[in-house]
Design a protein that fits this description.
2 domains; 256 residues; alpha/beta; D-Maltodextrin-Binding Protein, domain 2; 10 strands; disordered N terminus
Amino acid sequence: MFFLFLIVLIPGCESGSDRERLTVFAASSLTDVLPELKAEFERSRPEAELSLVFGGSQILRLQIEQGARADLFISAHPEHVQSLIDQQILSDPLPVIENPLVVIVSPEQATKVTRFEQLSDLKKLVVGDVAVPLGSYTEDVIRKSDEVMGSGFADQLRSSVVSKESNSRLVRSKVLLGEADAAFVYKSDARNTPVGVVELPEPLSARARYVLAGREAEGGRLARQFRIFLGSDRAMEIFRKHEFSLPEDPEADLEK
């Protein structure tokens, strides 16, 4: 069972009631970057009023399925957007950004573990639950690790897993709180944290793929403007500052 993890950023009471409103549901791994994008978007459009709701992509998808009002949804995995499109709840998917996976290592272990193959020496590893995007990407990496590191390596990693969390921020917090030796996280989550960072070997490299979709009848002009803004040079500059990158193959995640 997943605990609901939602962060809602809404405008203050001083906002005028005549402003155009847009509600964006977004993966928890966007918690740092989207408020900065929101401020930039609203600065150039005084009539705009964005509300940001953060949570695990799978939780947000369920909320939308149950009728939660979301003009736009940005998921950390294409499958959650595709599910809502298949149900004719959302439409017009748009690949936005990518986010590489890395392993963060606690300060106590950071000098001992600097390479991926050394992860098998650790006793307490935290991952995302396989039902959430981070966990799904992580399981793919662990499953393939036998081919790169040798037979049995994947089982060694799995045997050291002490916790499976429902979103990327909860995974990261286990290392920051000293409850784990290491964790698979997104590169954006490792930014500005007092931990060691281990890159994945090239054959095991994995990238979260963020896709946006919206409701046809909601959001209107403002939703279209925000979609365009997210692809602008200024938005990409902000994304890159937070360790995100442009999609390598924008069409790869869209169902033909």
